[in-house]
Amino acid sequence: MTHSHNDTDTTPSRLSRAWHSDLAWKFRHSPIAMLSMSVTVLLVLSAIFAPLIAPHNPFDPGSLNLMNGFTPPLTPNAFTTDTFILGTDDQGRDIFSTILYGMRISLFVGFAAVSLGMIIGITLGLISGYFGGIVDAVIMRIADIQLTFPSILVAMLIFGVAKGFTPPQYRDEMAIWVLIIAIGLSDWVQFARVVRGATLVEKHKEYVQAARLIGRSATAIIFSHILRNVMSPVLVIATISLALAIIAEATLSFLGVGAPPTQPSLGTLIRIGQGFLFSGEWWILFFPAATLLMLALAVNLMGDWLRDALNPKLK
Amino acid sequence: MTLLNIENLTVEYPSRHGSFKAVSGANLALEPGEIHGLVGESGAGKSTVGAAILGLLEAPGHISSGEITLRSRAISGLDSAAMQSLRGKTISMIFQDPLTSLNPLIKVGEQLTETIITHLGVSQQQAHQRALDLLDRVGIPDPALRLNQFPHQFSGGMRQRVVIALALCSEPDVIIADEPTTALDVAVQAQILDLIKDLAAERQVGVILITHDMGVIADTTDRVTVMYQGQVVETGPTKTVMGQPQHPYTQSLIAAVPRPQVKLRRFSQVSYGGRDTRFAIEDLARNWPKATPSDGPLLSVRNLTKKFPIAKSLIPGRSKWLTAVDDISFDINSGDVFGIVGESGSGKSTVARLISGLYPLNGGTVHFDGALVSDPKDKAAQQNFRRDIQMIFQDPYSSLNPRMRVLDIIAEPIRHHTTRNSHDLTPRVHELLDQVGLGKSAAAKYPHEFSGGQRQRISIARALATQPRFLICDEPTSALDVSIQAQILNILKDLQDHLGLTLLFISHDLPVVRQMCDRVAVMKQGKLLELQDTQALFTTPKTAYTQELLGLMPRLDGLSTQGLDLR
Amino acid sequence: MVSFLIRRVLQAGLVLLVVGLVAFSMFNFVGDPIDNMLGQERTQADIDRLRAQLGLDQPFVIQYWTFLTNAAEGNFGVSYRQGRPVSEIIAERAPATLELATVSALFAMSMGVILGIFTAIRRKGVLAHVIMSASLIGVSLPTFLIGILLIYLFSVELDWLPSFGRGEVTQVGAWSTGFLTSSGLKALVLPSITLGLFQMTLIMRLVRSEMLEVLRQDYIRFARARGLSERTINFRHALRNTLVPVITVTGLQLGSIIAFAIITETVFQWPGVGLLFINAVQFVDIPVMAAYLMLISVMFVTINLIVDILYVAIDPRLRT
Question: What's the confidence (pLDDT) of residue A7?
Fold first, then answer.
């Protein structure tokens, strides 16, 4: 948006406009939207402030006591009489704390990967849709080819290849960044296709012709006119992609090709917990899994609501 | 006996902003064999009446009071099963767009026979025979072959005939036609209206013809009901209502209709409902740079040609091309309004876009004020040219960026062409908004907060922001109601008179062209057929095609001339 | 239409060439194959011999060509990890994956389409709302969690179905099938549901939204205005038009089932190519990764071609 100084003296402020907009009105009248938004915000905040909230630092070897291993939730440990709300894992780590720290990784990877995919996708989609011709053909063929492969497979391949490139001693350190790139690169096609489609519609509208007639350059038209008009579908896809990215990260980590054991994400925790499910220590798997489901479900619900709310045809 | 009677009908749409009455207290009576026009501008509620009769109101709309009776039997408030048995059988409906009214994946014959079998319960064989007869009756040649085709194999006019055949499947008593010819070209429009007239007379069907077009009303209907903002303001025999309108709204509406026969100095403004807004042309003219008269024509077009690919083939030689503009040359003199008319697909809009540089040329040259401006490599000439020409587009809804404030929309050309800093940019925009009659407060709003006519004023303000010398108007009023059209056309006339602007005016509407233009070019299939002074073109057309077009103009002889500016 | 199909075939060929290039590049540039294949005790002569044997001394284009011709013959070299020809390992593992994918694809497609139509037609009904909400949970549950939950419920707690492996398999020629024994069929149940559930919810949601979109079209309004029954409108008019976009996406979904099998196979220790692939990724076993990539792209490309042909068969507008 272009800003100018004295535009707010005669009309209500932007904030109040936003509050009174149709979208905000629909939001305030949808219990599901408000609930899922609250859950998401709560989870994101508790991930951000994990060091302040978590009772233990699960990655500080000094605070670990192996004697605390396998403590069930809310039950004092037989040896140390320590109590943990969600119990401990095999190494005596507090599950509640590992979940908070694990969510940090999951959310960080999710947000970063979606942002990466979004930036690449929007840029290529705008270019492809606006210019058409050879550029469009090349970009869309690449997108088609990549779309033939499910994103999780592409992410695995990128992960595998990147692993081949990184020297073994750096692999753990780089794993998170490799994950972000792998999921982000596997994700751009969605954005590119939607943005391209919307751009194709927008570029034939007369306001674009009016801007061309003024003599504005293609770059100026793309970024100051078209971009803001293709953002609503992008918003929907970004939300749904966030849920998918969190799930993808969990899946990769679960398969052992994601976050390293030194930086466990929710997926890694589930991978660890899976081994103990059948021997009765259900809480090691259950709580991370429930958190993951809650997070993905809340984000998905928001995406679902957004799609309906932004689609004027659905009533 | 009255066939269909609507009494005191009120339709409400509850929403978060309170309940909206789309129709309030409307009355209408339809006799067998009668074509009853339902006319009004957008938002008048005329389509809502049509949908209400068939129980096809979109949720949450509903009939909140009043009664609809068919042969004295109440049909409003029937349950959905009873309503369904009525639809298509006793009352049929025809929609505006024949392109979307037919299922693209089902053969025309199947769509007909399934409807016939549903209503008449006859055998497949009999239904097939009846489908053949129907296609024949609505004037589709070679019906046996056509039955086996899919809708995309029909032209627009032929599809609308199929739609009419579908509506006739079970010999309905009433047909509701909602803008049945708006999406069609004039020539096809006339044929379809004739067909509807014949059918009404031949089968004693009552037809409710919903339209915004006074020409269609005057030529086709027996009776007419005029609606304004959900209310019926006048009803009566078409001749009486058109000739001696009683209600002030009807009077001003009729006065605003462009006449094909006489040239007016100005359009008469619709004053009903306080919709007339000031346009401060004198303010604008005060600071307008004096045009320096040049010797030659201001704009000179030579051998303009444009081809579009319609089918790309792997083998380059087999690709098919459509020549949208075919070797066209003309001159436009400074201070003139130059018109181009033609049906859809004639290439008239393409010419506008070629001159303005929105499309690259495939051949020919454009000179502006003596300088070549059609060479894409000569950036300097292009940049100067851009400042001198502006364009007003057809669709006021798509020509303004919906996510930009009016301030930014109007400031954009000024920012681009001058080095004004944003400090004196805002006063300049405010000034322009005052001049086009919208007021300063419009600057901070977004386009969706304005009506179609107001948006077109924003477009005009944007076009005038760089003080251009040449204005291209591409069907500037065809998306507007007739009363708003009159306002906008008057503004354009003022721009020519007071500012000495040169206009290229593109339109399919001959009466409008007659009112607006000094010289007119007629285009057909990319070719320029003839070019004459307006008066000469309308009195002594040179080509058969122009004669045909003139013959298809609505004859508005019976329309009241009250309030016309005949000076 | 012919030119449409020719274009599609050419495009399919292009896809294979590009994927081949990716696979080939992985071979050549990820790590050093010589390093990977020879142990610590090696001489320069060993290295040179192997280089010549692998053709690594040839120019890039020749190497690529050799790779492609070898791939066409099913020769992908030797697994770094197992030391056996990759083609042999894959041939051994493929039947398990294909059987699993087929069963879950049938499950996903049939249930997805049926539930999609149901939720679209009964949009306001209680059951439709329940199904829609459940489907959102389905999309939010990662496949591996579904697998774990199913195992916990049906294998550990109820002890009805096996928790891992294929059960008893019968050898039919080179193909080992689990379809012919009851333990083999039982073993298929949980993995197929796990694999198909996610795809099913996607297909269902897609069918629903496409159908709702179609039901809003003018020709449906016109069909209603002609008095056709709801049944005719829903099943003759709306369903046919819904299927056109659904088929494309469903085709893609079926392709991804084969890839998603990786996860399911890991959870259920299902001895298919997916499990093979994930182990290859963990140990950077490039020949196996490359071969898997080529194999799966051939499958995807074939599925896409079939989808294109179906598309033409359904939509008359493409036939002219």
Answer: 40
pLDDT, tens digit (0-9, with 9 covering 90-100), for A169-209:
777 777 888 888 888 888 898 899 889 988 988 888 889 99
Asked if A5 is an interface residue toward chain B (Cβ–Cβ < 8 A), one would say yes
Cα–Cα distance between B489 and B391 in angstroms, integer? 15
Instruction: Check: CB of residue B329 under 8 Å from CB of residue B355.
Output: no
- pLDDT(A78) > 70: no
Q: Compute the distance between CA of residue A274 and CA of residue A267 in angstroms, rounded to an integer.
A: 10
Query: What is the DSSP code (8-state) at residue B97?
Result: -
| CA of B403 vs chain A CAs: smallest distance (Å) | 7
- Interface membership of A212 toward B (CB under 8 Å): yes
Cα–Cα distance between A128 and A106 in angstroms, integer? 32
Q: What is the pLDDT of residues B169-211, one digit of tens each?
A: 888 899 999 988 887 787 888 888 998 999 889 889 999 999 9
Calculate how close chain C gets to A15, using CA atoms only, in Å. 32
What confidence score (pLDDT) does residue B233 get? 92
Q: Are A247 and C140 a contacting pair at CB < 8 A?
A: yes
Q: Is the pLDDT of residue A13 over 80?
A: no
Beta bridge partners of B307: B323
CA C307, CA B23: separation in Å to the nearest integer? Answer: 49
| Chains with ≥3 CB–CB distances under 8 Å to C | A, B
> How long is chain A?
315
User: In B269-345, which residue ranges form alpha helices assigned H by DSSP?
Assistant: 281-286
Confidence of residue B121 (pLDDT cuts 50, 70, 90): confident
Tokens of A187: 């994700």
Interface of chain C toward chain B, CB-CB under 8 angstroms: 3, 6-7, 217-219, 221-230, 232, 236-237, 240-241, 244, 314-317, 320
> Phi first, then psi: what are they for C258, rounded to 5°?
-60, -40
* B457-496 pLDDT tens trace: 999 999 998 889 999 999 888 888 888 888 889 889 888 8
Do B398 and A2 lie within an 8 Å CB cutoff? no
Identify the residue whose tokens are 């005057």. Answer: B218
Which site among A10, A30, A131, A206 would you substitute to test the B interface, given the most B Cβ atoms closer than 10 Å to its Cβ? Answer: A206
> Which has the closest alpha carbon to C145: A277, B297, B56, A227?
A277
The per-residue pLDDT for range C270-310, each reduced to its tens digit, is 888 888 888 887 777 777 888 888 888 888 788 878 877 87
- H-helix segments, chain A: 14-20, 22-28, 31-48, 50-53, 95-131, 133-148, 151-165, 171-185, 188-203, 206-214, 218-221, 227-229, 231-254, 266-277, 283-310
**Cβ neighbours of B382 in A, within 8 Å:** 215
CB B204 within 8 A of CB B222: no
Q: What stretches of chain C adopt beta strand conformation (E)? A: 170-172, 175-177
DSSP lists the bridge partners of residue B37 as: B209, B224
Q: How far apart are the first and last CA of chain B?
A: 48
Q: What's the rounded Cα separation, in Å, for the pair A71 and A188?
A: 43
ipTM above 0.90, yes or no: no
Spatial contact of A185 and A117, defined as CB atoms under 8 Å apart: yes
Under DSSP, the state recorded for B17 is T
With beta carbons under 8 A apart, name residues in chain B contacting C237: 103, 106
DSSP string, B389-457: EEEE-S-TTTSS-TTS-HHHHHHHHHHHHS---HHHHHHHHHHHHHHTTS-GGGGGS-GGGS-HHHHHH
Contact check, Cβ <8 Å, C148/A277: yes
Instruction: Tell whether B182 is within 8 A of chain C (Cβ).
Output: no
B197 lies within 8 A of chain C by CB: no
Q: For residues B192 and C47, what is the distance between their CA atoms, to the nearest angstrom?
A: 85
